[in-house]
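yo

u said u wanted the structure for the complex thing, so here. seqs first:
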Amino acid sequence: MTNHHSPLENHLLDALPTDVYKRMLPNLEPVEMPLGKVLYESGEALRYVYFPTDCIVSLLYVMENGSQAEIAVIGNEGIVGLALFMGGETTPNRAVVQSAGHAYCLSSARVKQEFALNGPLLRLLLRYTQALITQMSQTAVCNRHHSLDQQLCRWLLLSLDRLASNNLVMTQELIANMLGVRREGVTVAAGNLQDAGLIDYYRGHITVLDRPGLEKRVCECYQVVKHEFDRLLPYPPLK
Amino acid sequence: MTNHHSPLENHLLDALPTDVYKRMLPNLEPVEMPLGKVLYESGEALRYVYFPTDCIVSLLYVMENGSQAEIAVIGNEGIVGLALFMGGETTPNRAVVQSAGHAYCLSSARVKQEFALNGPLLRLLLRYTQALITQMSQTAVCNRHHSLDQQLCRWLLLSLDRLASNNLVMTQELIANMLGVRREGVTVAAGNLQDAGLIDYYRGHITVLDRPGLEKRVCECYQVVKHEFDRLLPYPPLK
DNA sequence: TGCCGTCTGTGCGGTTGCGAACGTAAGGGA
DNA sequence: TCCCTTACGTTCGCAACCGCACAGACGGCA
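structre next:
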């Protein structure tokens, strides 16, 4: 499969001033992002950062007993590997490709070079970090207070925003892992949404039929996160 | 009450190189931090950052229906108002003093001056940001997967780490608000810990009797967060 | 001394999600 | 074609937590 994607499909890269972008371009390497690919494990030193163009990456926390929970999702609006620029080198998270596609990757050495210049990349990533923090804290709140139905709506909408199509390739088992709930719970919640005519799913393929309907049903968490992303990282970029 | 605290009691300030610290010192203003004081509201522009010396500040998310949940706690190891340096100016959180004490505050203009130098303060705050992110994501996980007993242990230990004494002034009602659970639930959980001889509480005063016992009972979340703080922000600082 | 507000303890029914087990149906490969 | 894997649906008992209601218990104040 030829990679017909431009790095500019990643919103962060697109938002960079032309000179910075041109400086970085030779070092950006296109990579396939197959479903399930582990970009890094918890505690592992990061060797690359990834700028997704048409894939979705989940940040997961893996517990001692093996169960896991999704902390945040990253698509073409962001970057995977923030810990590199934060100075910690590692994170206690796992990053996994949740929806297959492509990305551009950049070696840690190159990234640090650019950071050291204290230029637009640093400022941009700071804003993105704040948006990501909002997403994480909203996840904490949502985990505590909202029903599985609503959380599923939130998750579907977050995924949808990061994809071109309204079709997700995702089994209920995987969704359950992401949300940190049982597979049976997802079966019921998805059944509710299907009965309401909002989605249609069939053996690992979910089609969103009525996006406005989902937005009516979702908890406030989704809008809060979306507003914060739009506020901090307007797209198309103003430059 | 005279303020006999030095800014150096805040670990971040203490970790700064002497020249940077001396440059900032004239602008640091001591402030009282009474219980319940709201440092900023959700969506409000930040006018100051605060470096706590002997108080604890909670970051809370307030939901549409008025209920709230704690996202993170900040004590003398950190700074309140990170959003200022991230570039967003506001956050969708509320910051409230959870345990009375003191802090040093710094106007937003002064902070930005220092950030612009791209110096040690920026690098230090980046590391702190990563530690805070760890705390937030661990909160998300803990909310989903662990029992109220364990969450209460975690909360007590996090608070204890940020205080000099083993005595907390805190009603069950307030703890319930922080944890986003019912007051009755806290009554039961605290009763369990009291029956186990780990704590003693009496009308808004909690005394920790057996800290190692709490650490045995707490979920993994506490240690993960603590390790990450120790790794990213060693104290005393190496300089 | 008596009253009132705050803080804590307890009980009850209802809901939600967990854990495990089992059934079914649709591909995919030999 | 048959078998086996994957994906989804359903059930049942169990535990945790919620919402509500109310009771006691302590402390400050008149």
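Chain B has two domains: 7-118, 142-226. Chain B has a mean pLDDT of 90.
cya
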